[in-house]
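W.,

You were right to be curious about this one. When I first looked at the sequence I had no strong expectations either way, so I just let the prediction run and decided to look at it fresh. Below is the sequence, 193 residues in total, followed by the output.
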Amino acid sequence: TQDVLLVGVSAVFFWAHLSNAIEHASLPSALIAVEQGLLVAFFITRRSSRQTTTRPVDWLVALAGWLPLLIRPSGEASGAWEAGWVTVQVAGLAVHIWALAYLRRSFGVVAANRGVKVRGPYAFIRHPIYFSSLLTVGGFVALNPSPLNIGLFVATMIGQNFRLIAEERILGNDAEYVAYRDRVRWRLIPKAY
């Protein structure tokens, strides 16, 4: 039932962004449609996990990845900065699609071990999908600042940090991941964290 719900949500956002991309020639919407289309495919075909967290708090923080769906345009976008923040969003979406393409059937929502990925963006940082979320959502919120959007962005980033810690706790039981973690030092932001 979880996968059916996830496929349904992603399919709705795929269609909404595809329609917006066609109607308004929006590159960010086109990339979000690609991302959501990949999610639909991966939710349908993802592999079973070797180990999945049973901690309720890990399931709760997994919901943080869906908080950006509540962020809305505020009409506060600044024309002088718009192109730069749209570029940040597009870069984030490109990294996200690149990371999903490498993760493929190992994609999941809650902390689990569905196999260790070490190539592509995973060769540079251990959590490129969370990094791309920082860029994409951050760029959108910078264009659409409102107390609600800023609060949701902060909550998303805090939740994503706890989520990556939960994933590393589960994956830390896998010798292949431990070797990978020793090679790829940075969790989220190259040269910083």
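Here's what jumped out at me. The mean pLDDT is 87. And, maybe more interesting for your project: Helices lie at 2-24, 27-45, 56-62, 79-103, 128-143, 147-171, 175-183.

Coffee later to discuss?

I.
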